[in-house]
Amino acid sequence: MLSLLLPLLLSHPTTASEICTPYPPPYPTSQNLTTCLDSLISSSTPLTPWTHLPHCIYADQSPHCVYTNAFHSISIITTPDEASTSLNLLSHSINPPFFAPKKIYPIKPYKVVSIPGKGKGAVATRRIQKGMAILVDTASILAQAEYPADVTREEVQDLMGAAVGRLRDGGEGVRALSRKGRSEEEDDELEDILLNNSFAVVLGGKNYMGLFVDVARFNHDCRPNAFIHFSETTFAMTIWAAKDIEEGEEITITYSAAGMLTEERQQTLEKVWGFKCKCSLCTASPSIQAKSDSNRKEIRHLQDQVGQLAQKGKYHEALKSAERMFELIETEGLTDQMGDMYEVPARLYYLVGNLEKALEYTLKVQNELQGYGVPGKFGMEKLRMLDGFIKKIERGLKRKRKAKEGRGKK
Ligand SMILES: [Zn+2]
Q1: What separation in Å is there between the alpha carbon of 126 and the centre of ligand 1?
Q2: Is 155 helix (H, G, I), strand (E, B) or coil?
Q3: Is the distance from CB of 213 to CB of 112 less than 8 angstroms?
Q4: In terms of CATH, what superfamily is 2-253?
Q5: Sign (positive/negative) of CA torsion 238, 207, 176, 74?
Q6: Which CDD domains did the record assign (predicted)?
Q7: Model pTM above 0.90
Q8: pLDDT for 235
Q9: Does domain 286-409 have CATH number 1.25.40.10?
Q10: What's the 203 CA to ligand 1 centre distance in angstroms?
Q11: Residue 67 — φ and ψ, nearest 5°?
């Protein structure tokens, strides 16, 4: 697409408005914007997949640059080293065919509305089934978390300005996000927005702040009905339904680390995100909060216990603890990417000879991995390994059935 469009665009030495071209996103999002590009580079340069020359400032340690792909409306602030090594691995995924989860509604299943006491929030416009993807949102800005330390304030603002200004909508979507006025000065607007709305993500083993314009509209809840998952290979954050969500219900995610107890959770939310949580759990009676805290403590304890019991060969007891843990995780709305968690009971059920249950849990792991869209190299290896394990279980089940039939004939 890029290589087809560029010669056309560049051969037109006209005004900016004339080189705008409609570029619909490859999957349903709330963005349906017109592409206006400035300082485009040729697609044949080694800078592909970036559409702009990097915009750099030179700090003591290493330059920090802005890399932009305006068609996908993403800017990454990082060092040239990072861009040419770990991030380079990702370049294939920024070009089509692009990431799309299998379990997604063809029409966006929510709308952003005003919610009393919360500003804006996302409300379901239809019944959303557990396990469905609600939204796939490519990061608008990914900024290496350490960069503000070794560059000046003005330089941070300069990088942010370039990163936001080069986005497909000229930064309109980012600028519309809320800011809590953490910074006093007017010209810190973008920095303020980034601090107030970004999620911590990991790219190539390094910490980044990720700004996702559509995800930022979803409010926090300490017992959410949806959860987020960031893909390192596609730069996209997906919101998944953790339970069935009714039409008209607010869709919420959690901003704090899963499993925190009431007090530490509220403190973190206030310190990091700048708001006092008034979700149903935080405003519930002390007895309900105490019950939730005790559930969360038990989950932590069970997590350790499952591993310890399994190591000692006490498989049946380990399974009992695992089942209890899943029950509590569901009660507390802490469902997250469970793939890895299901793998333990899958192995344990196999070891105790309950092949039906082993298959059930292995299929859950497989489903989750495939459901999250294009898995990375690690994910692919895991899927191959799971395939082998599933075949092994199925062979075992076949033998079991034959043995049963044999006994029936006697
Ligand atoms: Zn809360």
Answers
A1: 25
A2: helix
A3: no
A4: SET domain (2.170.270.10)
A5: negative
A6: SET_SMYD
A7: no
A8: 83
A9: yes
A10: 29
A11: -115, 130
Distance 325 CA to ligand 1 centre (A): 22
Q: What single string gives the DSSP state of each residue in 90-115? A: GHHHHSSSPP--SSB-SS--EEEEEE
Identical fold for domains 2-253 and 286-409, yes or no, is no
d(C-alpha 97, C-alpha 24), whole Å? 14
Domain ranges of the chain: 2-253, 286-409
Spans of the chain, pLDDT less than 70: 1-49, 59-61, 85-102, 147-150, 180-187, 258, 336-340, 370-378, 409-410
Instruction: Give the ranges where 231-376 is alpha helix by DSSP (H).
Output: 262-268, 286-311, 315-331, 339-351, 355-371
Q: 268 CA to middle of ligand 1, Å?
A: 11
* DSSP conformation letters of 53-100: --EEEE-SSSEEEEEEETTTTEEEEE-HHHHHTTGGGGHHHHSSSPP-
CB atoms within 10 A of CB 125: 15
* Å from CA of 202 to ligand 1 middle: 25
Cα(27)–Cα(25) distance, integer angstroms = 6
Q: Any idea of the CA torsion for 156, 159, 162, 168, to the nearest 10 degrees? A: -100
283: CA distance to ligand 1 center in Å?
7
